[in-house]
Specification:
CATH class of the largest domain in chain B: Alpha Beta
Helix content of chain B: 25-40%
Strand content of chain A: under 5%
Mean pLDDT of chain B: 87
Oligomer: heterodimer
Radius of gyration of chain B: 25 Å
Number of strands of chain A: 0
CATH architecture of the largest domain in chain B: 3-Layer(aba) Sandwich
Mean pLDDT of chain A: 89
Shape of chain B: elongated
Largest sheet of chain A: none
Strand content of chain B: 25-35%
C-alpha cells in the first residue's frame, strides 16, 4: 500500500516538474546566477588568500540553501495551492493518512531536487574550476539524518499552511533564515547546533571543503546530527498533527 | 438509530451537531441535531438554502470537519472512531471541477487518486480506462485537466470518486454551472450509480435535478432537520387542491361573486374565462359546478394545478406547513405527522 502511495506521489512530482518546466528551469537558473554573483563578490572584493576556501564554502552553502528552500518551502506553497484548488480535502479523504501522502510527496520533492542540486553543483564547480572532495558514503550518512530534519520542518510548514493558508509572507522571509542556516558555520555561532539542519550542514562543509573523513568525526558529532534530525522530524510531525486536528475541528481544510 | 439492523445501513447519521467557534462572539451553530439514513441503491438529496448547514454536514460525514456531538456510520463503521476505515467506504466530489490536479491529464488524475488509496496503477488502469469510456472522456484521457471544459472536468471528478469503488458517494452540487446536455449526462450517471447499488448523497440547489434523480430528500434549514421524506410523499403532501377551470363562456358578475363567497381561495381572470379555485373538501367540486350550472356556463377543462418541487422546498425551509401555517419547533416531526395524516 505504502509503495503505491509513494509511487503515485513521486510520479506526480516528476510529472508536474516536467509540465512546469519553465518554472523548474528558472529556479535553477536563479540559484546559478545568485551563485555567480556571490562568486564574483568573493573573487573581486574578497581576500585573495582565502578565495579558494571561500569558493568551496559558497559551493556547499548555495547547494544546501537550494535544497532547504525547495524541500521545505515548496510543500508550504503546495498546501496553500491545494487548499485553494480543493484537492487538499480530497487528500484528507484518502484511507491512507495524509501524513503518509505528504511524506511521499516530500520524498519525491527532495529526491528530485537532490538530483538537480548535484547537477547544479557540478555545473557550478565546472564554472569556477574548483572541485570539492566528494566522500559519497560520508555525504549520504550526513544527508540522511539532515534530510529527516528538513522533512520535519516541511511538516511544520505544511501544518501552518493548513491552518493559516496565508503564509506566503512567512515563506518569503524564511528564505533568508535558510540562507543563514546554510552559510553560518558552527564555529561562529556554536549555539546553532541546536537549530535544525545546521549541524548537518557543518559536517557536510567539513567533508566537502576541508576533506574531513569518517575517522575525523567523533561520536558526539554523529549523535548530535542524528538527535537533531530525529528531534526536528518528531517536532514537525507533532506540529502537523496538532495543526491538522485544529483544521478539522474548525473546518479549515477547505478552500479559503 | 445506528446499528439497529443486521445489514448495516450504507450511511447513518444521528443527532449531528457542530458549532464553529468565533473570536469574541457566540459560536456559530452550523448543524443542530441533524440525522438521516441512506440505503444501498438510494439517491438521497441533501437540500437547504445557503448557510443551512449542508456543506458542514457533508464534510462531517467525510471526516473533514469534526462534529461536536452525534454519530456517523458508514456501512456500519463508526466514522468518528475509525475515520480511515470509514473513508475506505466513501468518496466525495465536494467542489466539482476543483477537486482535480489541472496539470495532470484525465487518466493521470484517476491513477494518482487511486494511488493515494493504496492501489497500484497497473491494477486500476483497466477500470480507469473503462470509466473514461463510460463517462465519454476516452478521447480526452491524455488531455490536461486544465484544457478540458467545465463539464468534462466535473464528469472526471465524479469518475475519480466512482473509481474508488466505495459504497457511498457524496456529490456536492454535481451539476452546478453545467450546460443542459452535460447536466443531463451527470443525472444519467447518478441514476446508473444507484442502479449499481451505490448510495449517493447529493446536495444541490437545482430542484429539477433533485426531483429527477433523488428518491428521498433531507431538508435542512438553519442547521436543523426540516424534512426527511420521499420526494413523491412531499409532493403529495404539498399538492394543492387548486384547480384551473377553462370555461366556454365568461362568468357573470353574480357567479363570480358567488364563487368568492363560497371559496376563500379563488381567482377569476379579467375575461371571466379562467378560474383558479381551491377545492379543499370532497364536495367542493360539486358546489363549484353548481355555480356554473346556474347560468349554464360550459366548462371546457378542469385541471389540477401541479405543485412544483421548488415550491415544496420553499414551504419547507420557510417553515410553512401544507396548510400555510407555520411548522412547530420540531419541523421534521410535524412533516412526518402530516405525511401520516395525508397518507
Amino acid at each position: 500500500m505504502w509503495a503505491n502511495v509513494l509511487r503515485a506521489n513521486v510520479g506526480k512530482v516528476l510529472i508536474e516538474m516536467r509540465r512546469y518546466l519553465p518554472n523548474t528551469v528558472s529556479l535553477v537558473i536563479t540559484f546559478y546566477v545568485i551563485f555567480l554573483a556571490m562568486f564574483l563578490g568573493i573573487t573581486v572584493v574578497g581576500d585573495p588568500e582565502a578565495a579558494d576556501t571561500n569558493v568551496r564554502f559558497l559551493l556547499v552553502g548555495n547547494a544546501v540553501w537550494f535544497l532547504l528552500l525547495v524541500g521545505i518551502n515548496s510543500i508550504g506553497w503546495e498546501i496553500t495551492t491545494e487548499a485553494t484548488r480543493g484537492t487538499l480535502e480530497q487528500l484528507h479523504m484518502s484511507p491512507v493518512s495524509p501524513r503518509w501522502i505528504l511524506l511521499a510527496r516530500l520524498v519525491g520533492h527532495i529526491g528530485a531536487h537532490l538530483v538537480i542540486v548535484v547537477l547544479m553543483l557540478t555545473a557550478s564547480m565546472a564554472t569556477v574550476g574548483t572541485w570539492l572532495a566528494v566522500d559519497l558514503p560520508l555525504i549520504v550518512a550526513v544527508l540522511l539524518p539532515m534530510l529527516l530534519g528538513v522533512t520535519g520542518l516541511a511538516f511544520a510548514v505544511a501544518g501552518l499552511a493548513i491552518v493559516y493558508k496565508q503564509i506566503q509572507a512567512m515563506l518569503q522571509v524564511s528564505q533568508f533564515v535558510f540562507l543563514g542556516m546554510a552559510f553560518v558555520p558552527l564555529s561562529v555561532a556554536p549555539w546553532l547546533e541546536l537549530a535544525p539542519i545546521v549541524k548537518g550542514v557543518d559536517m557536510l562543509r567539513a567533508s566537502l571543503v576541508h576533506g574531513v573523513g569518517f575517522a575525523d568525526l567523533g561520536a558526539a558529532d554523529w549523535l548530535s546530527l542524528v538527535a537533531n534530525g530525529a528531534a526536528y522530524f518528531a517536532l514537525g510531525l507533532l506540529a502537523y498533527g496538532a495543526a491538522e486536528r485544529r483544521a478539522i475541528a474548525r473546518g479549515l481544510l477547505g478552500r479559503y | 438509530m445506528p446499528g439497529a439492523s443486521a445489514t448495516p445501513t450504507a450511511l447513518c447519521v444521528d443527532d449531528l451537531r457542530k458549532a464553529y467557534p468565533r473570536r469574541g462572539r457566540e459560536p456559530l451553530l452550523a448543524v443542530d441535531g441533524v440525522g438521516f439514513a441512506a440505503e444501498p441503491g438510494q439517491v438521497v438529496g441533501l437540500l437547504g438554502p445557503n448557510g443551512a448547514g449542508k456543506t458542514t454536514t457533508i464534510k462531517m460525514v467525510c471526516g473533514l470537519v469534526r462534529p461536536d456531538a452525534g454519530t456517523i456510520e458508514v456501512c456500519g463503521v463508526d466514522a468518528r472512531r475509525r475515520p480511515r476505515d470509514a473513508t475506505r467506504r466513501l468518496a466525495a466530489v465536494l467542489e466539482g471541477n476543483r477537486n482535480l490536479y489541472w496539470r495532470l491529464t484525465a487518466r493521470e488524475n484517476l491513477l494518482y487518486f487511486m494511488g493515494n488509496r493504496g492501489r497500484s496503477p497497473r491494477a486500476v488502469a483497466p477500470a480507469a480506462d473503462a470509466l473514461l469510456e463510460r463517462f465519454d472522456l476516452a478521447d480526452k484521457r491524455d488531455a490536461l485537466v486544465a484544457d478540458l471544459s467545465r463539464g468534462m472536468q466535473q464528469k472526471l471528478a465524479i469518475a475519480v470518486a466512482v473509481l474508488a469503488g466505495t459504497q457511498v458517494l457524496l456529490l456536492d452540487e454535481p451539476t452546478l454551472g453545467l450546460d443542459v446536455q452535460t447536466g443531463d449526462e451527470v443525472r444519467r450517471l447518478v441514476r446508473e450509480l444507484a442502479a449499481d447499488g451505490r448510495t449517493v448523497l447529493l446536495s444541490s440547489h437545482d430542484m429539477a435535478v433533485v426531483q429527477d434523480v433523488c428518491e428521498r430528500v433531507v431538508v435542512i434549514a438553519h442547521g436543523r432537520l426540516v424534512a426527511d421524506e420521499r420526494v413523491e410523499t412531499l409532493m403529495r403532501l404539498f399538492a394543492t387542491r387548486a384547480y384551473d377551470a377553462r370555461l366556454g363562456a365568461p362568468l357573470t358578475p353574480a357567479q363570480a361573486a358567488d364563487l368568492r363567497r363560497a371559496f376563500p381561495l379563488v381567482s377569476v381572470s379579467d375575461d371571466g374565462l379562467h378560474v383558479r379555485v381551491d377545492l379543499e373538501r370532497g364536495d367542493d367540486v360539486y358546489r363549484f359546478i353548481d355555480v356554473l350550472r346556474r347560468e349554464r356556463t360550459p366548462m371546457e377543462s378542469l385541471d389540477r394545478v401541479a405543485v412544483r418541487f421548488e415550491e415544496v422546498f420553499r414551504h419547507l425551509v420557510n417553515g410553512d406547513g401544507p396548510a400555510r401555517g407555520a411548522w412547530p419547533a420540531d419541523a421534521a416531526g410535524a412533516v412526518r405527522e402530516e405525511v401520516s395524516r395525508v397518507g
